[in-house]
Specification:
Largest sheet: 6 strands, mixed
Shape: globular
Helix content: 25-40%
CATH architecture of the largest domain: 3-Layer(aba) Sandwich
Distance between the termini: 23 Å
Structural class: alpha/beta
Strand content: 15-25%
CATH topology of the largest domain: Rossmann fold
Number of domains: 2
Length: 271
């Protein structure tokens, strides 16, 4: 299918982040081309989130992905906030319909979909307490996981997140064990200071049933590789970022890509 040439009628979607990556740009534009949609996606940065979102409204920009550090500030700049964003008080998606801005959080909805068949009766251990950890932990809590532990070196953010969800907090994993282990820290991230490290010990991984690593680059983190070697069920950050982007794509365009198209766009976005 041929994509229409750029024109005055081309609809624009953007992302706003302090340090934009090419992942969203490649993902969305790949699917626009594949599906013949008259859209264009561009990653942007700003030092004035209020003015930037004002521009989304004023210029008729159809969709806007919001990344750190703007996810909380964006809440007060829109007209409607869906339950997914209300649940964690953070926005990652804004849809502009005739200058009316509606905010959602597709990280939250993507995680809920990925864990829909998990057993909520088992113990859960989440490492991390930042914005994405809040989305992930809240998705687990709202999916029925009541026995949860937040592991975070930052006592303030760790205890705040744990208390909000009715979970416990620990500074280190220590002797804690759980059937579901989730890493929502930069450990294992490509290019980071801890890119070769594993977020959980071999013993912790061996005692778990499911390993969930939210790090998207690389898809096969040291943690994911260690879990696969032990035959554990694995959920990767690449799955999260692809599914949340597909949710955004559908909201912006009204078109839901097939699982095969999402997988192809995900691969293209990480090349």
């Amino acid at each position: 299918m041929s994509k229409p040439p750029l024109s005055k009628d081309t609809r624009i979607c953007i992302s706003l982040a302090s340090r934009p990556s090419n992942i969203g740009t490649r993902f969305h534009n790949y699917l626009y081309e594949l599906l013949g949609l008259d859209f264009l996606y561009k990653a942007c940065t700003t030092t004035d989130i209020a003015a930037a979102i004002g521009g989304v409204r004023a210029l008729g920009i159809r969709g806007c992905s919001v990344s750190m550090p703007f996810k909380q500030d964006a809440l007060r700049l829109v007209d409607y906030v869906e339950d997914s964003a209300k649940a964690i008080q953070a926005v990652n998606t804004i849809v502009n319909q005739d200058s009316v801005l509606t905010a959602a959080n597709t990280d939250y909805t993507a995680v809920r979909q990925l864990i829909a068949d998990f057993d909520p009766q088992v113990a859960l251990l989440i490492r991390g307490s930042g914005g994405m950890a809040s989305a992930v932990a809240t998705a687990f809590r709202d999916s029925g996981f009541e026995n949860g532990t937040i592991v975070a070196r930052n006592r303030v953010s760790g205890t705040e997140l744990a208390e909000r969800l009715g979970y416990s907090w620990r500074c280190e994993v220590g002797d804690a064990r759980a059937a579901v282990l989730v890493n929502v820290t930069p450990i294992g991230m490509c290019g980071g200071a801890e890119q070769h490290e594993v977020a959980f010990s071999a013993e912790e991984i061996a005692s778990a049933d499911v390993i969930f690593d939210v790090v998207a680059l690389p898809a096969e983190t040291p943690l994911v590789s260690a879990a696969r070697a032990l035959g554990k069920r694995v959920v990767t950050g690449a799955e999260v970022i692809a599914l949340q982007a597909a949710e955004q794509f559908e909201r912006y365009t009204g078109v839901r890509p097939t699982p095969e198209q999402i997988a192809a766009a995900s691969l293209a976005s990480r090349l």
